[in-house]
Amino acid sequence: MISTRPNIPYLKAAWAAHASISAANCRQTYEEAGITFERVNHSWIVRKGPTQVSTMPLRYTRQDLRMGFLGRIEMEARKAASEMEAVLFHDLLLPEDHAMIVEVEQSMRQLRRRGSRALTILVGPTVLTHAPGQFYAEIHALLDAPRAFVYAHRTNENGCAPTDLLVDVSKRERHPRAPTYAELARRLAETLNAAIQASTETAALTA
Question: What is the pTM of this model?
Answer without folding.
Answer: 0.90
